[in-house]
Please model this.
Amino acid sequence: MCRLCTRAEAPAWAVHNPYVENGYRVTGGFRGAIRSVLMWHNETANIWSHLLGLTVFALLTTSMATGWGNAHAPALPASWIMGEEGESWDGAGGEALRATIASLASTLDAASSEEAVLLHYEPAPRWPMYVFLAGACLCLSFSGICHTLACVSAQVSSIVWRIDYVGIVTLIMASFYPVVYYSFMCVPALRTFYLVGISLFGFVVLSVMLLERFQAPKYTPFRAVLFSGLGAFGIFPLLHQTLFTWRIVPTPMVVTFWLEILMGMCYLGGAFIYARAVPERWNPGRFDVWGGTLCSHNLFHVLVVAGAYVHYRAALVLIAWRDHHRCDADATLLRTFYLDNGWLGGRHHVPWIPHGEL
Ligand SMILES: [Zn+2]
Model:
């Protein structure tokens, strides 16, 4: 059984937050550490916040795999596909649009049934979403294990904190998979470029986190830069696709973009609260055990789960869109972007063609 002690009594390697005064577990060994999951100490809220988060993500994965809870693919609001319909339907633009639709409708009537089949509902691949869900489950379970076992010994503590980093890097890498895959589903070269790029970068960061020589305090800024660099890398594919589509509001990619901004705020807000030791720095000792849910690291944990959930919702938006609209949707978005801007020589307004009318 673990004994609880104060910060002054606890070994130096066990103290990470100078504002937490009590509730340090000692002398329990592996058995005591595992039993301490059901005790109150200064890691209880850290352990349980991520074990509960793990339960949520395990349920989301099961729900997706079995179809339980979402038997039907979510329908998309018509406005996402129509774009800014108001101006398109009036005046000369509206005339041109009606003429285009009429000609497309007659083409479709004449099309063979094989071509028509292509327009039918066909679910987008689910594996990129499972990569993300697996990354989230791995990160949350590694974190739960680390916070449970970190009190065993100096050596175990040094190993489990590295495992915690591995979980975080895996979550960052895995998060890019659904967003990059679904938004660049019809541009295979860019999709492969971004996915291979993020995976290689992620493996470099993983090696640095695992190698003993990079654990020295002098490498802390270097590790912080690598972590942030990996997260920042994700901005490129996101901005890349949003750039093409921002003029047509709302589109799934713009909706996803705002959700990802919210996710970024959760992660960065959590990292800031953690780094600044808010709120325990203002009242050391007050948030140790019973107020543990308010300690900076607990808030950081809760915000990580919230950020991952927002990301899951963002990926669902893209999946729902790709289930209903495949590469024809990209062609329409890109054509509107280039021709409306006159970048490819077209000065006239090219009307938006609703997918349902094709
Ligand atoms: Zn943690």
